[in-house]
Write a structure and sequence with these properties.
- This protein is mostly beta strands.
- The protein has a single domain (6-98), classed as Roll (PH-domain like).
- The protein is 15% helix and 48% strand.
- The chain has one helix at 84-98; strands at 6-15, 18-29, 32-36, 42-47, 52-54, 63-68, 71-77.
- A hairpin with a 5-residue loop joins β3 (32-36) and β4.
- The protein is globular and about 35 Å long.
- The mean pLDDT is 87.
- This is YokE-like PH domain-containing protein.
Length: 102
């Protein structure tokens, strides 16, 4: 396995009003987005080209919405700084552009 293009720990991952984990991990590696619990169990994963994201402009800048395999997740990236959601969306966009290149 190669180094992840994006890695964030301590991420609150929720679905609707339900919190799935308070200290989860988000990885973008080898053209896939992976959501993990605090214990390393996979919540969901998908190829980056199948993931839809949104970082609300006027909302809290540490939150991003991600749709993975048709399921919507609210990601709160607390430990990564104020503009962490924008960095996550940028990393996902960069990974999409890199898919299919030799």
């Amino acid at each position: 396995m190669s180094e992840p293009e994006f890695s964030a720990t301590g991420v609150r991952i929720g679905r609707r009003l339900r919190s799935l984990t308070l200290g989860g991990q988000v990885l973008i590696r080898d053209g896939r987005l992976v959501l993990l619990t605090s214990r390393g169990r996979e919540i969901d994963s998908a190829p980056v080209e199948d993931v839809h994201t949104l970082a609300p402009r006027f909302a809290v800048r540490r939150r991003a919405l991600a749709t993975v395999n048709g399921t919507g997740y609210l990601l709160t990236l607390r430990r990564q700084g104020a503009a962490s959601a924008a960095r996550f969306v940028d990393a996902l966009r960069t990974a999409r552009e890199g898919v299919g290149r030799p």
